[in-house]
Design a protein that fits this description.
387 residues, Rossmann fold, OB fold (Dihydrolipoamide Acetyltransferase, E2P), seven-stranded mixed sheet, 10 helices, binds S-adenosyl-L-homocysteine
């Protein structure tokens, strides 16, 4: 059975072993979950046991955000795909087992249109050419689609006709945005943006709430699992209805807004300007009045809150892969909330941060994993700490 599964999966992906994206593709899904739970348990061994590692029913096509880099192969054909790990060599990806299939179909249409519109592919070595990357986001509940064309310069020839041709094939596209990235960088998106079709954003529904998502705002890529992840974070916080909650690294305000229904009031802090703008609008759209958002470095904000003497009962933190900062953790222990719910997409940095918090009197009470990234080695975890 295992052998069959191995064969089936590998055959299903033409670039297995080349793109480096699906390290666990050969492994039956149950075994993947077991392995991830073991790894998390190993990391958390000094602190607590791991309750569960929540998997997906169908661990395929779950990525609702798809980014492709455009290039040419040796024969000069236009290709799009991902960088081979650790290199700038583009592995062509046409049918990815992780990516939303509609997004992959739109990528294909774009590859075909480029030729007829004579749009040049950007060449990283020479710096010539126009199209660098395409990023597509598909709303899970709404089906709304956003296409972001990342260009090396702001002028796109016959952009209106290009959009028209794209929409003819995919009328479900809700908005098309040009993002200008004129820097020699491995970052995908640049600063400047121009909306060339539609409202410039899409909306999605998670845990019964509507969220506006702009091109530069963070939004979890696996919506099915995100509901389970947020559910666990809220469960661990076990609100009574009176708490003051701080949602740190809040993105578009998702976790905080869900918490606002069960707690007294919520403060969200996030560095990305666009995400904070989305968060403010999201709260309004969902009729939530007991939440406020601040655009600031979470560490600086934490110091400010700790110095103000205000009381916070629960801190929910969901930092990026690099984890939290010394400044944040120091101020957190001064603020001394009764509960800290740590949501992490990188348990290595989470454990590093937890170690510091345990030196300040916190104990890890519960931990679990949610498989946000099936078929890859990536682990998402939630921990509850309290004093
Ligand atoms: N909780 C959100 C976002 C988590 S991703 C969600 O589930 O959607 C981590 C977020 O941290 C990103 O939105 C990123 O922009 C933000 N971030 C990164 N560094 C930060 C910092 N120093 N201060 C505040 N926010 C930061």
């Amino acid at each position: 059975m295992e052998q069959k599964n191995k064969k089936n999966n590998v055959k299903a992906c033409e670039v297995f072993g080349k793109c480096g994206g699906c390290q666990f593709l050969e492994m039956p899904y149950e075994k993947q979950l077991k392995k991830k739970k073991q790894r998390l348990a190993e990391l958390l061994k000094p602190y607590c046991d791991v309750d569960t590692f929540i998997g997906m029913e169908c661990p395929k096509y779950y990525r609702h955000k798809v980014t492709a880099t455009f290039s040419r192969d040796r024969k000069g054909n236009i290709i799009s795909g991902t960088y081979k790990e650790g290199t700038h060599y583009v592995v062509p990806v046409e049918n990815c087992l992780l990516e939303n299939q509609k997004a992959d179909a739109i990528m294909k249409t774009i590859r075909n249109l480029l030729k007829s519109f004579k749009i040049k592919i950007y060449d990283e070595d020479s710096g010539f050419g126009l199209l660098r990357h395409v990023q597509i986001r598909v709303g899970y509940a709404t089906g709304q689609i956003m296409v972001v064309l990342v260009l090396a310069s702001p002028i796109m020839p016959s952009k209106n006709n290009f959009v028209k041709a794209l929409l003819k094939e995919h009328p479900e596209i809700r908005t098309v945005v040009v993002n200008v990235n004129d820097k020699r960088t491995s970052m995908i998106l640049g600063e400047k943006e121009q909306v060339i079709y539609g409202p410039g954003y899409i909306e999605d529904v998670l845990c019964g709430m509507t969220f506006k998502i702009s091109p530069k705002s963070f939004y979890q890529v696996n919506p099915i699992q995100t509901e389970k992840l947020y559910g666990k974070a809220i469960e661990y916080a076990s609100f009574t209805g009176k708490e003051t909650v701080l949602d740190a690294y809040c993105g578009t305000g998702t976790i905080g807004m869900i918490a606002s229904k069960k707690a007294g009031n919520v403060i969200g802090v996030e560095l990305n300007r666009d995400a904070v703008k989305d968060a403010v609008l999201n709260a309004k759209k969902n009729g939530i009045s007991n939440i406020r958002f601040y655009q600031k470095d979470a560490g600086d904000f934490m110091v400010q809150v700790a110095e103000s003497g205000d009381k916070v009962d629960v801190v929910i933190m969901d930092p990026p892969r690099s984890g939290s900062s010394e400044k944040f953790l120091e101020a957190l222990s001064v603020l001394s909330p009764g509960k800290v719910v740590y949501v992490s997409c990188n348990p290595e940095t989470m454990v590093r941060d937890i170690e510091k918090l345990t030196k300040k009197g916190y104990r890890v009470k519960k931990a679990c994993g949610v498989d946000m990234f099936p078929n890859t080695v990536e682990i998402e975890a939630v921990c509850l700490l309290s004093k």
